[in-house]
Design a protein that fits this description.
The protein is α/β, with parallel strands linked by helices and about 375 residues long. The protein is built from 14 helices and 13 strands. The protein has two domains: about 130 residues, Glycerate kinase, domain 1 (Rossmann fold); about 220 residues, Glycerate kinase, domain 2 (Alpha-Beta Complex).
Amino acid sequence: MKIVIAPDSFKGCLTARQAGEAIAAGVRKALPESEIVIKPMADGGEGTLQCLVDATGGKLLQTVVKNPLGRDIPAEFGILGDGITCVIEMAAASGLYLLSAKERNPLLTTTYGFGQLIRAGLDLGCRRFILGLGGSATNDGGGGMLQALGFRLLDANGADLDFGGGALCKLSRIDRSQADKRLEECQFIVACDVTNPFIGPNGASRVFGPQKGATPEMVQQLDDNLRHFADLIQAVEGISIHYMEGAGAAGGVAGALLAFLRGHLQSGIQIVQETTRLAEAMAGAEFVFTGEGQVDFQTAHGKTPCGVAQLARQFGIPVIVLAGAIGSGIEALYKEGVTAVLGIANKPMTLEQSMAEAAALLEQTAEQATRIYLGKKI
C-alpha cells in the first residue's frame, strides 16, 4: 500500500521534513510493509526555502545583507539541486520579525536586503529565482530592492533617495542605466497568494501597513507615495501597476518585480507542488497525510493542507490533515478534498508541551489514523 506524506512545517518545533518523518514512523507501526513517499511542503511563506532545498537535494547558503533598518545581518538563501534556481524568502532580509515592535515604521524600512539576496544568487550563476514574499516589514514598493540591483531612484536634484516608503514622495526619476545586466537573463517566479493591488482601499498600504507599524496618517502618506511611484513606473516602463491584482504583496514589492523584472506571480503551494513533483508522487497512492501547526478558517485560503487536498481530489485520494491545534471554520476544508482533520494532542497540555512533544504526538496520531483506515478496508 502506498501512502504519501506531504506536511508543512509545524512552526517553532518541526520542519516539514521532520514532521514527515514523524508521520511516517507512525504509519510504519500500523503498516510495516507500506510504501511511504515523503514530500515536505510549504505555501510560499516561512519554511519554503528549507522545503525546496530538502526536496531537490540543494544547499543552504548565507550572506550579509541590510535588515529593514539598514543594519548588517546574516541571511540565508538556497540553491536548488539543479544548480541554477535560487530560492529566497524575503523575510530573511526584510522581515517583520527582524524588528522590535518599537522599531516598526514602514516610512523608514527598506527592501534593500532582499535585493542583496537576489544579487547574491546572480553572483553564484543563478538565473531562475523563486521568491517567497511573506512576512515583510516594508512598504517601499520594492524601491530598496531595485536600488540594491543597480536601479537609481533620484530626487529632483539628481541625488539618490533615502531608504523607506516615506522617501518615495521625493522621487523624480528612475534611472535604469546602471541596473544589473544579468537580470535580463533571469526568470523570477513570485510566490504570492494575496490579490491586493498596489494602491487604493485594498492596496498594500491600507491593508498591510498597520500591521507593519503604520498609523492612520502614515497609511495615507504611504498610499500617496506608492501612487506617485506607480505613476513614474508607468512613464518609464509603460505598465500600470496601480490596480494590478497581486501587485500590493509585500508592501508593493510584487509590483516592482512585475514592472522591472518581468516577474510571474504564482500560488506558493502550487510552486512547491510543481518543484517537488507531488502530483507524480500521488499516482497510485491509497491515502495522503498532510498537516501544519494550526488549522482553521484561514487554511482554505492557499495554505498547504488545502493545496494538497485539492491536488489529491483530482486523483480521488482521501486526505487526512494532522494539526497541532484546530480552530474554527475547518468545515470549508471538506469541500476542498479533506477527508478528516485530527488534532494531535492526546491530553490537556500547554502550547509549550505540545511543541516539545510534537514529533511523538504526530507519530502516535498517524499510527491511529492509519489503523482506523485499515479497519475500514477490511
